[in-house]
Design brief:
Length: about 230
């Protein structure tokens, strides 16, 4: 089988004016049968069209907060923003939907997909959705921080075969209003949506946790990547 080409949205270090990548994303894709490639940071329609036409799947990585202006709010208690990623992911995701290629959104990537489809975010969980759960754990990041309940009948229900799953957690924002084009696939005990999917797409999955960091430690993390790469190969 030819390895499907998976484009990754680059990580952006604004202070160092640098694009970079965490090897965990690429290793997880490689070990799952994919051929990962980091994309350029651009909002140029012609470049993105060419890039998306070459890719069999897209991974929207973690990163800075999504600008709340995209869902009509002020900055509030947002952390660092990244205009480059907001400006790139908007047309990139649109092109991916048009071609109906598989998209996996992790952490910020998941939050961005919800915003792109008309949903909103809690800009700061501690102030906008106070919770006893620890959504912002410290290292080691391959260890679970809280549990999630898998929604019956969702793709993750079929994929995992378990209804409760311990996940790592490294986010201070979360889905507030879920886009009506998405369905929840997992929730934390405090009600936060920790995974969703898009029923009208072939494969659009968002996870709030970091399966790339628990890839070696957790079978369900490996299954997420296997399912994503397998969908991209078809
Ligand atoms: Mn969490």
């Amino acid at each position: 089988m030819t390895r499907p080409l998976i484009g990754l949205v680059p990580l952006v270090d604004i202070g160092r004016q640098s694009l970079w990548m965490l090897p965990a994303y690429m290793d997880a894709l490689e070990r799952s049968g994919g051929a990962p490639v980091m994309l350029p940071l651009t909002s140029d329609a012609g470049v993105l069209e060419r890039v998306v036409s070459a890719c069999d799947g897209l991974l929207i990585t973690g990163g800075q907060d999504v600008n709340p202006a995209l869902y009509g709010r002020d900055r509030g208690l947002c952390g660092e923003l990244c205009d480059g990623r907001d400006g790139m992911e908007t047309p990139l995701f649109e092109l991916a939907l048009k071609r109906d290629i598989p998209v996996l959104g992790i952490c910020r990537g998941m939050q961005f997909i919800n915003v792109a489809l008309g949903g909103t975010l809690y800009r700061d969980i501690p102030t906008e959705h106070p919770t006893p759960l620890c959504h912002r754990q410290s290292a080691p990041y391959d260890r679970p921080s809280h549990e999630v309940a898998i929604e019956a009948g969702s793709p993750l229900d079929a994929l995992f075969g378990v209804r409760k799953l311990g996940v790592n957690s490294c986010h201070h924002q979360a889905v507030e209003r879920l886009s009506d084009r998405l369905r929840a696939a997992a929730r934390a005990d405090d009600g936060l949506i920790e995974a969703f999917y898009m029923p009208s797409a072939r494969f659009v999955l968002g996870v709030q946790w970091h399966p790339e960091l628990s890839f070696a430690a957790d079978e369900c993390s490996r299954r997420i990547f296997a399912e994503f790469v397998g969908a991209a190969a078809r």
